[in-house]
Amino acid sequence: MSLISHYKDSRCAISFELFPPKTAQGLESLADNVRRLCEFKPSYFTCTYGAGGSTRGTTLSVLAKVREITNLPVASHLTCVGSTVEELESYLNEATAQGTDYIVALRGDPPKGTEEFVAVEGGLRYANELVELIHSKFSNLGIAVAGYPEVHQESPDAKTDLENLKRKVDAGADIIITQLFYDNIDYFRFRDRCVAAGINVPIVPGILPVTNFKQAQRIATMCKARIPYDLEKAMDATEDADEQFRIGVEHARMQTVNLVENDVPGIHYYVLNKSDAATALLDGLQLVS
């Protein structure tokens, strides 16, 4: 099933993002959570990998396990960081051989301790180059790219950021999955700007349920995601872990309802290898746009 075909009907397509666990116990726990998440009939799962490609092999193992459990399509993240074109092609060949269906193509963050991304000799500098490589040599793989409703933190302005996104789409991307955001107005403005710029692929909002205030603050700092005043005030008003979880899940649930009411093609949930928050916010919802 092609990646873009998940977004062709009236159902709001759901997908979940995982990351490679570090232990055998973590993998077992992940498998249990994947089974729980399947209750919501996701279209596919994605899996990230560690900085600089440090867990690429584990990523493919996780995706193989997910496919075994669910019989659903799976997507591997892939970045340009620390890799030559030859190494990227080698990974793509291995991913294809192991049954990976889609690639989330990213430039990747600069290595820790550095401020500027520098391509290795024989490597790629931009995500659109990676998309072009996949599209031209691995046309069987669906391609997702990242979009930034609040503008990528390295971009000088929104216009430049949007131009970079259009280059990725023009190079062959099938869909855009957005960076997490906590105020839907940021997504809607971004979507409108994409349409005005001639970007006509599905723009899938990315949602991360906040389950504690410290987590919210840390993520906001790391991803430059603005936390709405009401959410910040409510979570800061209590130190009770269960209450903070309830507040964060309810906020993500309201985001979900509002997004579906405004005809999003799907929603991508960053679940941090857990299922409690996603299960709580999705329970009982009819995700039909």
Would you give an account of this structure?
With 289 residues, this protein is an alpha/beta fold. It has one domain: TIM Barrel, CATH 3.20.20.220. The chain is built from ten helices and eight strands. The protein has helices at residues 24-37, 56-70, 85-97, 127-137, 158-170, 184-196, 213-223, 229-236, 241-261, 276-282; strands at 13-18, 44-47, 74-79, 102-106, 142-147, 175-180, 203-207, 266-270. Strands 1-2-3-4-5-6-7-8 form an eight-stranded parallel barrel, surrounded by four helices. Strand 4, helix 4 (127-137) and strand 5 (142-147) form a beta-alpha-beta unit. Helix 4 packs parallel to helix 5 (158-170), helix 8 runs antiparallel to helix 9 and helix 9 (241-261) crosses helix 10. The protein is globular. 44% of the residues are buried.
Low-confidence stretches: none
Number of structurally distinct domains: 1
- Which second-level CATH architecture applies? Alpha-Beta Barrel
Number of helices: 10
Radius of gyration: 18 Å
CATH topology-level fold name: TIM Barrel
- Principal-axis shape equals globular
Average pLDDT score: 91
CATH hierarchy class name: Alpha Beta
Structural class: alpha/beta
> Which band does the percent of strand residues land in?
5-15%
Largest sheet: 8 strands, parallel, barrel
Return the string of H and E elements. EHEHEHEHEHEHEHHHEH
Helix content: 40-55%
Cα distance, first to last residue?
21 Å
Spatial sequence of strands, sheet with the most strands: 1-2-3-4-5-6-7-8
